[in-house]
Amino acid sequence: MINAGWYTELSPMWPGQGLTLKIKEILYRAKSDFQDVCVFESESMGTVLLLDGVIQCTDRDEFSYQEMIAHIPMCSLERPAKKVLVVGGGDGGVLRELARYPYVEEIHMAEIDRMVPEVSKRFFPEVVWPANGRRIEWTYIHTYIYIHTFIHSTSSSRNSQRALPIKTPFFEALHRAVRPGGIVCTQAESLWLHLDIIKALADMCTEVFQGGSVSYATTTIPSYPSGQIGMLVCAKARSGAEGEGDGPLDPRIARQQEPGPLPALGVGELRYYSHEVHSAAFALPVFAKKALGGCLTFQ
Amino acid sequence: MINAGWYTELSPMWPGQGLTLKIKEILYRAKSDFQDVCVFESESMGTVLLLDGVIQCTDRDEFSYQEMIAHIPMCSLERPAKKVLVVGGGDGGVLRELARYPYVEEIHMAEIDRMVPEVSKRFFPEVVWPANGRRIEWTYIHTYIYIHTFIHSTSSSRNSQRALPIKTPFFEALHRAVRPGGIVCTQAESLWLHLDIIKALADMCTEVFQGGSVSYATTTIPSYPSGQIGMLVCAKARSGAEGEGDGPLDPRIARQQEPGPLPALGVGELRYYSHEVHSAAFALPVFAKKALGGCLTFQ
């Protein structure tokens, strides 16, 4: 809602509350084939990208979410990832973070809306697009179709009210797509606002990732409702091959090196993620641990 | 700011942004000798207490801050605390948390405004006032005067713009008041909003607590600006007495048992704090660690 120079983020997903930001200037407004796209310059959070009126990212704090959702799964893996699929990463932040890993050979991007990367490239200079000599393949279709056409998967989306229902077959397809010991990491809402959604998602993932593990990691991010967001880290059962540990993969342990900067490509030092922050992110407040205890493997 | 049934928390301390809450009903409005006091029922956060228009606590999330600011220092101590001073704890939440420790013999409360505990007792049933057979002594004077009259100390306050300037002599007085190995814990603002204030406070405390330690612990709390707040944990140098460790006290280690519920007094199980959350609270995001690195003993 925009009113007299102020924007308030209202949504049925967080009724009766919302972050209010002072607008300096509206930079862009358009309707893509899928959603309303708006970019404005705020007084306190830098440039803000709205999709259907909901904050997608801000200059000020996007690195928290982007670094955590990229590096927690990447650093938890026993064997470094060579191929990565990003579902709905049109703002480019996760792509920037993946560029830090020299051993990643292929990145596949599935994004429904061509307008999102176009707008992000234009208005978010901090989000660079470093191909870094590797293959990056974009597919502009709905995740639902992508799944059934390419790898049979899906993910939840930040704008959950617009997402397709979370259904077991989609996560089963994702589970099939990753190698043994591989990880599917999905945005998983706020402990303060959406414990019921997190529980349903975790229960379903636990069913799908049998023999593997399902855990929740948290990060702070002022521009998200409640200032906190988390991700479910779902690890596929290991194959028992040489060099693999026994039992389900514990994602609280960072196994791969912290990735560094790539100054030549405009990718600076990490600003949020470290191995210490990685492990601490799995320590949940008692109220959340109680509510989710039965459906998380490690917490 | 209250407008058309909605409240927005605006302040020069966080310019250009604020949490917006839908008001169900305004329950109380008065002017005490010191400040505007307002209580309203919100749609999403339960009962909300405002002091001079700034959120002091809400039903929904007060336990996060109250548990963390009470139990992190209490559980870090090598020798259990028998006497505790609470400065500005008029809403009663910290008193409730301290009641969990059977070995605490005396609690001293210094609160400027009689209206705050009166209003809290009336409108916040979750915040019980359990004396639990021990001595609780209230003093209703300004912290500044309390310090100079009783123990010569001060603290920062949530409404920092109304607080007296943070000055070395006040913290020197607090430092004198605690025993060797004792802890002074003060609210210390948000990493996302106030790194400059935190740095100034930590630098000053490091100067005062020489031979001891100064560290920052964080908690999530949706009703605070940015959804995150922290506390400085300042430990006085140990005396070298028997049973004490060497060097400065590391508050990341929980040494005392997690306190339990007191059902007879209406104090339930802990809802946020655990030993695991205690240690994780000191793992700071890289941007904060870099900014504060030089002035924190443990992080």
Automatic annotation (TrEMBL), chains A, B:
> EC number(s) for this protein?
2.5.1.16
What the entry lists under PROSITE patterns is as follows:
PABS_1 (PS01330), PABS_2 (PS51006)
GO terms assigned for molecular function: spermidine synthase activity
Pfam families named in the record: Spermine_synt_N, Spermine_synth
| Organism per entry | Volvox carteri f. nagariensis
Catalysed reaction equations from the record: S-adenosyl 3-(methylsulfanyl)propylamine + putrescine = S-methyl-5'-thioadenosine + spermidine + H(+)
Give the coiled coil ranges: none
Q: Which domain of life is it from?
A: Eukaryota
Pathway involvement?
Answer: Amine and polyamine biosynthesis; spermidine biosynthesis; spermidine from putrescine: step 1/1
Official protein name in the record:
spermidine synthase
Q: Does the keyword Iron-sulfur apply?
A: no
> Which residues belong to any copy of the PABS domain?
4-236
Keywords attached to this Swiss-Prot or TrEMBL record, sorted alphabetically, are:
Polyamine biosynthesis, Transferase
